[in-house]
Fold:
Amino acid sequence: MRWVYIAVVALFAIATLIFALQNLQSVTMSFLGFRVSAPLAALVAVIYVLGMATGGSAWALVRWAWRGSKQP
Structure:
């Protein structure tokens, strides 16, 4: 099972590298009057990290609430 995990991570890393190399053009993103121009791959990476942080925080909050509701 360990080798399957390593293979999946390696394939994901290779796919991410290919994506980054093929998307070097600069794009402009705007949100609530805030504008950013950066390579597409960099913006996707930043959004992915922000999604992991908020998703992890939401999951931790749900687990905390679930455990708190089970205690007498």
Remarks:
- The chain has a mean pLDDT of 81.
- The radius of gyration is 18 Å.
- The chain has one domain: 2-70.
